[in-house]
Specification:
It is a single chain. It is built from one helix and eight strands. It is mainly β. It has a single domain, classed as Elongation Factor Tu (Ef-tu), domain 3. Strands 1-8-4-5-6-7-3-2 form an eight-stranded mixed β-sheet. The mean pLDDT is about 85.
């Protein structure tokens, strides 16, 4: 079943995919297995709370460092797809900014 839809917003120098999916809207418990499809390429990943919740070589879907706090103190964070010790952008065959990100369960 399709759960979330977004797009890669940008890619950092480590090959992490910064998405348009708000971290506040994701409801996955830490260490939940999910399937990610980006630009037609699909991989299994672990939804988690941060970069150290996955082991080396494992793909993760977690709140990233990108975001901001507005003047009322409300925080916005974006979900990120990263490969611990690797390059998620390469893993998904170098998707473009306009490609669709799908999170499947």
């Amino acid at each position: 079943m399709l759960v979330l839809l977004g797009r890669p917003r940008h890619f950092d120098g480590y090959g992490n995919l910064k998405t348009t999916l708000r971290a506040e809207a994701q409801s996955y418990a830490a260490e939940t297995s999910v399937r990610l499809r980006v630009g037609g390429h699909e991989h299994g990943a672990t939804a988690g709370g941060g970069t150290f919740s996955v082991t080396h070589g494992q793909l993760a879907f977690a709140p990233g460092s990108s975001g901001w706090t507005d003047r009322t103190g409300s925080e916005t964070r974006w979900m990120e797809i990263f490969l611990r010790g690797g390059n998620a952008w390469e893993s998904f065959q170098r998707p473009g900014i306009g490609d669709q990100v799908e999170v499947l369960d």
